[in-house]
Every structure is written in C-alpha cells, then in structure tokens.
Amino acid sequence: MRWWKVLGLAGAAGVAATGVVIVRSERKRRAYTPDQVRDRLHARLDEQPAPTGDR
Questions:
Q1: What are the C-alpha distances in Å from 45 to residues 19, 30, 36?
Q2: Where is the composition biased (Basic and acidic residues) (predicted)?
Q3: What is the pLDDT of residues 1-55, one digit of tens each?
Q4: Considering Cα of 20, then 21, then 22, then 25, what sign does the dihedral take?
Q5: What pLDDT score does 1 carry?
Q6: Sequence-separated (6 or more) residues with CB below 8 Å from residue 49
Q7: Which of 1, 29, 31, 32 could be disulfide-bonded to 36 (CB atoms 3.0-4.6 Å)?
Q8: How far, CA to CA in Å, does 14 sit from each of 19, 21, 22, 40, 47?
Q9: Which run of H or of E encompasses 3?
C-alpha cells in the first residue's frame, strides 16, 4: 500500500471520529429542556463578578 493511501485512510478515520464527537455533544445539548437551559444560564450569570464601572 502506498503512503498516500494510508494518509487518505487516516484522514477518513479522523473525519469520522470528529463527526462522532460532534453528534455526541449535539445529543447531549439537545437533551436539556428549555427550563434547564434557562436555569443553567442564570446560574452562570450569578457566578460572574459584578461590574465595577472602572473602564
């Protein structure tokens, strides 16, 4: 087998692996209800320090 065939197969495997990771994270993201997303965003906002107005 030539080196360019091996490189092509490795590239195809990398693309497939990337697709799996994206699909997995998308499923995890879509599993939240809108209320859960809102609660998480409010919690993240509450963790932020208050702006001091010094610019």
A1: 31, 21, 14
A2: 36-55
A3: 688 899 999 999 999 999 999 998 888 878 888 899 899 999 999 998 877 776 6
A4: positive
A5: 66
A6: none
A7: 32
A8: 9, 11, 12, 33, 37
A9: helix 3-30
Side chain identity at 50, as an amino acid letter? Answer: A
Amino acid identity at 51: P
Q: Which residues are CB-neighbours of 32 under 8 A, at least 6 positions away?
A: 40
CA distance 1 to 45: 55
